[in-house]
Design a protein that fits this description.
Elements: H1 3-15, H2 18-24, H3 29-43, E1 48-49, E2 56-57, H4 59-85, E3 92-97, H5 102-105, H6 107-116, E4 121-126, H7 129-137, E5 143-147, E6 154-162, E7 164-169, E8 179-180, E9 190-193, H8 198-209, E10 216-220, H9 223-231, E11 236-240, H10 241-244, E12 252-257, E13 264-271, H11 278-290
Parallel strand pairs: 3-4, 3-5, 8-12, 9-10, 9-11
Antiparallel strand pairs: 1-2, 5-13, 6-13, 7-11, 7-12
């Protein structure tokens, strides 16, 4: 069973089609299609149902996809460990960071890391926390920043805890409050991040605990845009307190959300039991120095 065929199959599933998968693995669409077909022939069963407009996983395909992600991750860990054993000094730090909070929390660490390890290449991947966890499971990155709690598949090093802040227009009827509960926001339209941002999950799960599903007025991956929408009265946005005062010039009120289990707790995570390269361990050491308090 060839690794390149497994990689092609995984990317077809992840990217939602052969053409986008081909771009990801830097191959032609026909090459990717041939690789998947070879894998199906070798395993003696179809992995994709191609009858519709979009290929979907068969039952066998679901099993192979799940196992392939782990196999590819283990292969990458093996290569990283062998690289360290050979004494290669350069190395590569493959790090995933979410857009929310990264500039404030991690930008200063990059300068310190570069000064200590000038020959290490840093490959940065940016997505929401949920997407980063998927990429981390596949072994495409070594470390990621994500919100706690995380799956037992991961180990973690705490970075920071902050309460969430509700951001609303200055003229909003609730703008005079010192603190807000989610029950106060029943019936209010919310402004959320795009799918894949863990902060959405925190807010939505808290709303459901209060017994309601909120209306979502808009979604965006841009913090400043969400703050501006809140200032224009289109709805209520949510940010960690640390981040809330650093974005946007809109006329808004920032009110601490006094709600259990809505704390923004960010950590650096890695696959449980996975080998961490010297470059990755050096980043973790720097994080521990900058944020010695446990999260």
């Amino acid at each position: 069973m060839e690794i390149r065929n497994l990689r092609a199959f995984v990317e077809v599933v992840r990217q939602g089609g052969f053409s986008r998968a081909a771009e990801t693995v830097f191959a032609t669409q026909s090459t990717v299609s041939k690789a998947v077909k070879q894998l199906e022939t070798e395993l003696g069963t179809p992995l994709l149902d191609r009858s519709g407009h979009r290929s979907t996983l068969t039952t066998a395909g679901e099993v192979v996809y799940r196992r392939a992600i782990r196999l590819l991750g283990e292969r990458d860990s093996m290569l990283a460990e062998l690289e360290d054993l050979r004494g290669l000094r350069r190395g590569t730090l493959r790090l995933g960071l979410p857009p929310v909070g990264s500039s404030t929390l991690f930008a200063p660490l990059f300068a310190a890391y570069r000064q200590r390890h000038p020959r290490v290449d840093i490959k940065l991947t940016e997505h929401g926390s949920d997407r980063l966890e998927e990429i981390l499971r596949a072994g495409e990155i070594d470390l990621a920043a994500s919100l706690l709690p995380v799956s037992e598949d991961f180990e973690w090093q705490g970075v920071r805890r902050e309460p969430l802040v509700a951001i609303l227009a200055e003229k909003h009827p609730l703008a005079g409050r010192d603190r807000l509960n989610l029950s106060d926001l029943r019936g209010e339209p919310l402004l959320l991040f795009e799918t894949g941002f863990a902060i959405n999950r925190i807010v939505l799960e808290a709303c459901r605990r209060e017994g309601f599903d909120p209306a979502v007025a808009a979604r965006s991956s841009q913090i400043d845009f969400l703050v501006e929408l809140a200032g224009a009265g289109l709805g209520i946005a949510f940010l960690p307190r640390l981040i809330a005062g650093r974005h946007g010039e809109a006329a808004v009120r920032r009110i601490v959300l006094d709600e259990p289990s809505t704390e923004w707790a960010i950590a650096i995570i890695w696959r449980r039991g996975a080998y961490l390269s010297h470059a990755a361990r050096a980043w973790l050491a720097l994080v521990r120095e900058a944020a010695p308090q446990p999260a």
